[in-house]
Amino acid sequence: MAAQTAGAGLEERWRDILSVHARTMCEIDRVLHPHGLGASDFEVLDILATEAPRHGDQCRVQDLVERVHLSQSALSRLIGRLEKDGLVERSVCVEDRRGVWVALTPKGRDLHTAVLPLQREVLARTLGG
Predict the structure, then answer these.
(1) H helix or E strand, kind and range, residue 102
(2) Which of 31, 74, 120, 125 is the Cys-Cys partner for 70 at CB 3.0 to 4.6 Å?
């Protein structure tokens, strides 16, 4: 009986986490939509803006896959859209021709700077911070 109660408690916590995640992602999508971005688009721009400067303003796509919760093919399509919009640029990794680098463009950095407060406000509201 105790095991069932513990299992039910874990399941309830799991559903609460999923619910908070879904509400947060939907709200981020809503506030960023007027700027032509979704939550996943912003996440890639945010990682590039905060992590890439340590690596010469670029990040390997493989490193993004580990940070963004998308499949490699979905992430490649997302990066393609961001590149088409002039927000990022891709280049081949000279050391490993299979690798691809992604970097923010000035337009991408400006957009990230403009929408960062909107995303952070959503996080503060939905996560209570």
Answers:
(1) strand 100-104
(2) 74
